[in-house]
Design goal:
The protein has helices spanning 16-37, 42-45, 56-79, 90-93, 104-123, 147-165, 178-184; strands at 47-48, 53-54, 84-86, 133-137, 144-146, 175-176, 200-201. It is mostly helical. It has one domain (16-181): Four Helix Bundle (Hemerythrin (Met), subunit A). Helix 3 (56-79) packs antiparallel against helix 6. The longest helix has 24 residues, at 56-79.
């Protein structure tokens, strides 16, 4: 039986291939971050390479906030029968936390621990559970979503930020546009490597995201 398409919703049962792909991505993100920053000093991890670029700490704090907000929506979909949920923006949620002031290593540890819990929960779901849904209000991103679409949203969002952090050959590339993303939710682009060469210590930014 077909269901209305919303953020990747296709059928009344999620395909096992989609489930496996999402779980793999979600499991790997904290490990990928740890690999990328291996050998970096605390100073490097908290440094903004340029005025309009994020520090590595700010990137991971942002990922943690997004995963928590969207993960709570997944929890509601599991606990309730198609709830109506008022969308909460991560940029609003992070203002209520101290995530941007916490050290990079403590932030990554918390993000990693929370990810273990999320993946463990999702791994227990049946194919039918993955298409449990909700209707969202106060959002232009789409009124209907499912557990699968929200888990996919988290994974896709994190992949984009991993690309910004860089890979083994070019670790910690500058992620530009902190004002753009924190204020609007849109992502900027890395222009050149530079995290390890230049920048200023990041002051406590206005809590945005």
């Amino acid at each position: 039986m077909k269901t209305k398409r919303a953020h990747g919703v296709r059928t009344a049962r999620a395909a096992q291939s989609e489930i496996r792909a999402v779980l793999t991505l979600l499991s790997e993100t904290p490990k990928q971050v740890a690999r990328i920053v291996r050998g970096c000093s605390d100073q490097q991890l908290h440094r903004r390479p340029e005025a309009d670029a994020w520090s590595a700490q700010e990137v991971v704090a942002h990922l943690r906030a997004c995963a928590e907000v969207w993960g709570r929506s997944i929890g509601r979909m599991l606990a309730e029968d198609h709830p109506t949920i008022r969308y909460v923006s991560p940029r609003g949620w992070i203002r209520k936390t101290n995530y941007l002031q916490v050290s990079f290593r403590d932030t990554l540890q918390a993000f990693s621990q929370e990810r273990v819990v999320l993946v463990r929960t999702l791994s227990k779901l049946t194919a039918s559970d993955w298409v449990r849904g909700a209707t969202f209000t106060a959002t232009t991103l789409g009124r209907k979503a499912t557990i699968l679409s929200y888990a996919t949203r988290i994974a896709d969002h994190e992949v984009r930020h991993l690309d910004q952090l860089g890979g083994p050959s070019q670790p910690l590339q500058p992620f530009r546009g902190s004002t753009t993303l924190f204020m609007t939710g849109r992502h900027g682009g890395a222009r050149r490597p530079g995290w390890l060469q230049r920048g200023q210590e990041s002051a406590d930014p206005a809590i945005r995201s």
